Amino acid sequence: MLRLAASFVLGYHGCDCAVADQLLAGEPFKPSANDYDWLGGGIYFWEANPQRGLAFAERAAKRPKATIKTPAVVGAIIDLGACLDLTTMNGVATVREAHANLAQRMAKAATPMPVNQDTLRRQLDRAVIEQAHLIYDTMGARIDSVRGVFTEGRPIYDGSGFDEETHVQIAIRNPDCIKGVFRVPKAHLGR
């Protein structure tokens, strides 16, 4: 995995207030392992977007059987490490190769390929990203994080190519990439 950028990013994680308090007290993040997580298994953050992290928690709190009762967001200082960055040509080529490898593996096993159900439930994308992890693990390498642009929401004006909820999302596979956790100032939340 090429490391083409050396920088820290600020990521924001929407969660329940009790979980936020635990994280701020030093408890580790729990990785997501849903079969539809588009960037594969990992700890999910919104890059440079605390308001979006909180909006996620607020929406999640309204779902039936919600685990989030009191929405909150925490910030994290993240070193992306060896990042599979889907905003780069190298990242796209890696994922394309992983898809071909997965398709070949599934065909040999006479198993149908997973299918993305919609914009949010992306079983195929998750399987492809997990295949990329498997390929790198087999080579004795490691992908620490996956980063991608997620277009979502309505256009911000008639004829717009910009959608109101587009964001950069990061899935951290290696928790050592999380260098610190902080309470998000209310002013950063627009409140």
Features of the shown structure:
4 helices, globular, alpha+beta, 29% helix
Structure, explained:
The chain is of the alpha+beta class. The protein is 29% helix and 23% strand. The chain is built from 4 helices and 7 strands, in the order E-H-E-H-E-E-H-H-E-E-E. It has helices at 17-24, 50-61, 89-108, 123-138; strands at residues 8-16, 43-47, 71-79, 83-85, 145-150, 167-172, 178-183. It has a 7-stranded mixed β-sheet with strand order 4-5-6-2-1-3-7. Helix 3 crosses helix 4 (123-138). The protein is globular, with a radius of gyration of 17 Å. The model has no long low-confidence stretch (mean pLDDT 95).
Summarize the structure.
The protein is α+β, with helices and mostly antiparallel strands. Helix content is about 30%, strand content about 25%. The chain contains 4 helices and 7 strands, in the order βαβαββααβββ.
Structural class: alpha+beta
- List low-confidence stretches: none
SSE succession: EHEHEEHHEEE
Tell me what portion of residues adopts beta-strand conformation: 15-25%
- Helix amount, in percent? 25-40%
Mean pLDDT score: 95
For the termini, the CA-CA separation is 40 Å
Spatial shape:
globular
For the largest sheet, list the strands in their spatial order. 4-5-6-2-1-3-7
Helical segment count: 4
**What value does the Rg take, in angstroms?**
17 Å
Topology (SSEs and partners):
Blueprint: E1 8-16, H1 17-24, E2 43-47, H2 50-61, E3 71-79, E4 83-85, H3 89-108, H4 123-138, E5 145-150, E6 167-172, E7 178-183
Parallel strand pairs: 4-5
Antiparallel strand pairs: 1-2, 1-3, 2-6, 3-7, 5-6
